[in-house]
Amino acid sequence: MRIVRDGVSHVALVGVVTLLLVVAQAGVEAAEPFSTGNGIRVVLLGTQSGPTFNAQRIGIGTLVEAGGERLLFDAGRGVTTGMARAAINPVDVTKIFLTHLHSDHVISLPELLVYPWAQGRRTALDVWGPSGTRSMMQKFQEALAYDIHVRRDIDEKFPAEGVKTRVTDIREGTVYQSGGLKVTAFLVDHSPVKPAFGYRVDFAGHSVAISGDTKPSENLVKAASRVDLLIHEVGRWKGDPALTGPPDELMPNSRQTKAEARTIAAHHTDGVEVGAIFDRVKPRLAVLSHYNVDPRATLMLIRQNYAGPVEFGEDSMTIEVGDEVSVHRATPAR
Ligand SMILES: [Zn+2]
Ligand SMILES: [Zn+2]
Question: pTM for the complete prediction?
Answer without folding.
Answer: 0.90
